[in-house]
Each structure stands twice: as C-alpha cells, then as structure tokens.
Amino acid sequence: MKSRRRPYSEQRPIDAGGGVWSVPVPIPGNPLGYTLIYAIESPAGPVLIDAGWNDPESWLALRDGLGSVGMDIRDVRGVVVTHFHPDHAGLAGQVREESGAWIAMHEADVALVELIRDFEEGAHQDFQADMLRRAGAGAVEVEEVTANRPRPPARPDLVLRDGDLIDVPGRRLRTIWTPGHTPGHICLHLEDADRIFTGDHVLPAITPHIGIYPYDRADVDPLSDFLDSLEKVKGLGDLEALPAHEWIFPDTAARATEIVAHHEEKLIRIAALLSEAEEPLTIWEIAARMTWNRPWEDFPPMLRGMAAGEAAAHLRTLEVRGVIRRTTGTDPVRFALHS
After folding, report:
1. CA–CA gap between residue 60 and residue 267 (Å, rounded)
2. Which residue ranges does the record assign to the Metallo-beta-lactamase domain (predicted)?
3. Alpha-carbon distance 286 to 334, whole Å?
C-alpha cells in the first residue's frame, strides 16, 4: 500500500482494510498539504483518529470524505487525538458539536490545551516575543514570527494514559504514550489487527518536529524522550503503520530505526558546528548555521521559529549528554562545546 507522496489534489478517501478508512483533510497554506484522518468502524458508530485543521474547507473535506465511504459525521462515536497540534485536534470540537462524540487525549497534552486556552492573545504574543529574544532573534524576526496564532483546540472529555484501551466496541485499540513531538503524543495499537496508528511519531519519509518551548528551558529533554519513544514502538515489532501524513507503510520498527539514526547524525553535526565556532553561539545563530532542506534565508518567519525550537531540542540533548554547556549570565543564552 506504500506509495509516493502526492499533493492533496490527488488524494481520495480509501479503504485501508479491516474496517479502517483513511480520509485526507487539507491543511491550508501548509507544505504538508493534508492530514490523514482514520475512521474505525464499530457497531456503535465510527471512531476517528484525529480530526484535522479547523477551517471550513477542511471541515467539508472531513464531512464529505466520511460520507463518500458510507459514514455520517453525525454518527461519530468519538475522536482520539494523537496530539494537540491544530492539524490533528482542530476540528475535534466541531465533530463533537455535530455528533455528540467524546474527545480523548493524553493527559500531558490535555494540560497544554488548558494552558493555551487560558492564554489571552496579548499574553501569548508577549510570551513568544520574549522567548525569541532570549534565543537571539532580531526585532524584525520577533515581530514576524509572533504575527499569527492558530485557534486553540477544544477541551477533551476523556483523559488517556499509557496502556489505556479506547472505547471502540468490537476492537482492541490501546494507547501507547510516545512523547517527543509533544509531551502527550500517543500512538494507537490496533491489537486485533497488528497495526499501529502512528500520528506524527513515525512517518514514512519525513521526520516530525521536535522542539523546546521556551527555547532555553533546561528542565526538559524532548529529543531524548522522542528517541526513547521510538525504541518503545520498535519493541512492538514490524507492525503496519497508519501515519497522519504521507502514506501507509509496512514496517514501523525499521522506519523508527532510520529516524533514530537521523537524529544521532544531526547531534554529531551540531557538536561539530560548535567546535568550529570561535565563541559561544545563540540558539538562533546555531539554527541559522544548521543544514535544512532549504537555505535559512529562504525560510518564512514561522519556519525559522520552528527551526530554532528544533535546534534547541538537539542542544538540550547534547547538554544532558555532557557534550556541550550553556553559558551563565548571558542574555541571550549561548552554547559552547564542553571543555
């Protein structure tokens, strides 16, 4: 079932087999193009894995896509959100309004949803601006990155923990906590069919964003969490993966191994970058010198902000491993190779 990555205009709902359907839902203005929403059949109504971006076009794609495979969105029993990001959680609230469905999410991301919803618009922008300034971003970059904020996701009804079974009558769908991309990211093991819904955790050709926010936090290590979570998923065996982006593919464990190697190589390159620097560097300077899929100068503001978060996560892991150190008493914070 593996195929090349195709634009959203070429995507169609498909029968993924075994009572599972895949419905592509567009992400307006995003190079990812779309999120794959999965619908699991049950006698009590379908259960969705994720819901898609909160946008009228996306809503029509979800509603009509389900309709094209014989499902009425008003019959949806529940929405399991793999993580709180807007291309996954955005439409969950509207599905609930339409059908009375429950929304389920891991407790760590539930806490983030509550935090986001409690932020007033001005306070959120101030938080972002201060974070960017401490990372070494310039005033113009700070203004550009903080310009837009997605609508916050709906509050979930059900709080999930690692190992919980999801209420899907006739099926065994188990929660696998896989932090890294977000603190509460989950995969979902369909145990009665030896398949796994991987959300953004394991994707067939790209890797998920792993970042720290604020960038200079020293009390978390999301990249190490992510690498540990990949090992956890590998331990489940060579399950067929149903990811939230790109395409279905046959061997989750093999792809997880490739992703671990990718990040270990990136850690080596960042350490080498710092060893060549004549003085400690800010997070923003390090991000600008890293190798990306396009030149730093061509990055739009939002992607620069995400790249800085990715740089920060790798720096934090190197710091935890004792390879690098952060300078004390400097603003913005700077990093150097450990002497």
Report:
1. 42
2. 34-245
3. 9
Tell me which residue of 252, 315, 254, 307 sits closest to 281, measured CA to CA: 315
How many beta carbons lie within 10 A of that of residue 5, not counting itself?
Answer: 13
Tell me the pLDDT tens digit for each residue of 71-125: 999 999 999 999 999 999 999 999 999 999 999 999 999 999 998 887 655 666 6
Fold of domain 8-262: Metallo-beta-lactamase; Chain A (3.60.15)
Task: Locate the domains of the chain by residue range.
Answer: 8-262
**Residue at 22: amino acid letter:** S
- Give the integer Cα–Cα distance in Å for 124 and 266: 31
Residue 11: strand, helix, or coil: coil
DSSP one-letter code for 31: T
Q: Rounded to two decimals, what is the model's pTM?
A: 0.92
Q: Is 326 exposed, middle or buried (0-12, 13-18, 19+ CB in 10 A)?
A: middle
Q: Which residues contact 228 (CB under 8 A, 6 or more apart)?
A: none
Rg (CA), the chain: 20
- Record the tokens describing residue 245, joined without a space: 């982006």
